[in-house]
């Protein structure tokens, strides 16, 4: 399947990537998490073996980088970028477990298009105030809200698959433990039976030893 072209990177200085996020009311913890997510995605986009993961991670990096320089709806862009980083990590995990019969949870082309549209919206918000109309800001904000819902829906799909996979793993482990327990009980039964047989033979042997002298004594009489 042909992948959509990557959007062009915005002009963001590399020394600013780990700089504090300005003009944002988000907590410091969120800012630290944001910078960590950015570094993680940059590494993922460079070392991922799967082409689809590489493309998705690369667009996500552009989105997180652009979120530093938007002049309007900054908090909305940052929170959406965090959602996207979570989705990309979930997608990467799912993609790395793909087999020959793997059926993707979401359409990769749709995901790439959605991320590209988010990046386009962000680039509009990097314009200086008097270059962007208030109406355009409202339109972009509404578009970001729609994309945020789409991203959240996709996240829930991956979370559900992950939860099901974990539940199946637990069920398999429980069955394996039950089978091992059953086999152990069977072995105990066999061992107990052998012990009982050994005890019965020993008892018979003791009775035979006691019985022989008594017979000889009777004959001597």
Automatic annotation (TrEMBL):
GO terms for biological process: cell surface receptor signaling pathway. It comes from the Eukaryota. This is Fungal N-terminal domain-containing protein. It comes from Sistotremastrum suecicum HHB10207 ss-3.
């Amino acid at each position: 399947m042909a992948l959509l072209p990557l959007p062009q990177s915005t002009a963001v200085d590399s020394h600013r990537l780990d700089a504090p996020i300005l003009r944002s009311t988000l907590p410091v913890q969120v800012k630290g998490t944001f910078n960590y997510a950015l570094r993680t995605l940059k590494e993922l986009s460079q070392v991922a073996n799967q082409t689809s993961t590489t493309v998705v991670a690369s667009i996500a990096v552009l989105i997180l980088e652009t979120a530093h320089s938007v002049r309007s709806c900054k908090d909305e862009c940052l929170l959406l970028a965090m959602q996207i980083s979570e989705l990309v990590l979930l997608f990467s995990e799912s993609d790395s477990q793909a087999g020959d019969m793997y059926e993707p949870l979401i359409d990769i082309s749709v995901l790439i298009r959605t991320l590209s549209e988010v990046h386009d919206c962000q680039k509009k918000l990097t314009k200086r105030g008097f270059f962007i109309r208030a109406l355009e800001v409202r339109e972009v904000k509404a578009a970001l809200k729609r994309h945020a819902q789409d991203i959240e829906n996709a996240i829930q799909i991956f979370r559900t698959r992950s939860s099901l996979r974990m539940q199946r793993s637990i069920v398999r482990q429980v069955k394996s433990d039950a089978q091992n327990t059953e086999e152990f009980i069977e072995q105990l039964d066999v061992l107990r039976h052998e012990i009982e047989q050994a005890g019965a033979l020993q008892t018979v042997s003791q009775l035979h030893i006691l019985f022989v002298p008594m017979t000889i004594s009777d004959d001597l009489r």
